[in-house]
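Quick one: examine the sequence and fold tokens given here and explain what the tokens say about the fold. Here goes:
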Amino acid sequence: MSKRYNIAIIKGDGIGPEIVDEAIKVLDSVAAKEDFELAYNEYLMGGIAYDVTGDPLPNETILGCKGADAILFGAIGGEKWDKLPRDKRPESGLLRLRAELDLFANYRPVKVYKELVDASTLKSEVVSGVDLLVMRELTGGIYFGQPREKNEDNAFNTMVYSKDEIIRIARVGFSAAMKRGKKLCSVDKANVLEVSQLWRDTVEEVAKDYPEVALSHMYVDNAAMQLVRDPKQFDVILTGNIFGDILSDEASMISGSIGLLPSASIGGSVGLFEPIHGSAPDIAGQGIANPIATIASASMMLRFALGEDEAANKIDRAIEVVLKDGYRTQDISLYGAKEVCSTDDIGSIIADVVSKIS
């Protein structure tokens, strides 16, 4: 009897439903190929959840996600909900879900596909061969720090990290480096922030358990510059929540399109897998969104959450083949396109290639 996995699906807002549908199409293709079953249960989160239930993260969604083997998520948000109280905005639902599931480690790989080197705004000799991972701590730091306050004249947020929080994300980062190039750069602002000094001291302690990994430190402002100057120097970048938020978006543009890059949020018993881009409501429903980042996130889900490495390899290979053959969505259509495809078309083509890979 084939293995069966329960997948919680959160499509979200904007282009979320379109890109998740294409990822499901590819997942179904590879599941048939590899002889396992995927059972999907759909839940609401974000703006659509607020519209339907008055809550951007209904309790039903929390319970459904906790009972799943993995979560595949699209994107949330949009101007429609920007004027709501902060705790009712779509983004608050995602922050709460991360906290509920203890998703403290965020993997954001950045890989430059050979066929899309010219899509980057940086010179080809700078970006060719880039393959790095930003490891972002996801449930601590300034986004979650208490106290926080705002009045008419003043506002403040607190950046807080405990040693235990730093130890656990550092271990995940070093473990990832062991499977890659065995280099880890810890990014902080230890010259001016006490919390960053604790971060640096703790990372150095954890490094003693990983003697094969070369550890370096870099201030966040320098790291931002170095990502543009020489991104190939990095293997794993380990950093806190707010620095990781900024640096991972910067790093994503090295690839040429934010529509290409996946992410995984893990730590608790259930992982969440999503593209790094937003909901892009300005192009929703037009069939031009790039689903490759979501499809690649589905591959990460198979690898990290379900242990289906061969299935993940097939999806990764199919994406490479499709790009090599010149199929492009609109966002990357200026770079080696033999055929410009719709969202639906590119998903179908990748699913078809997956079914033929031996």
User: Anything to note?
Assistant: The longest strand covers residues 3-12. The chain has a mean pLDDT of 96. The first helix runs from residue 16 to 34.
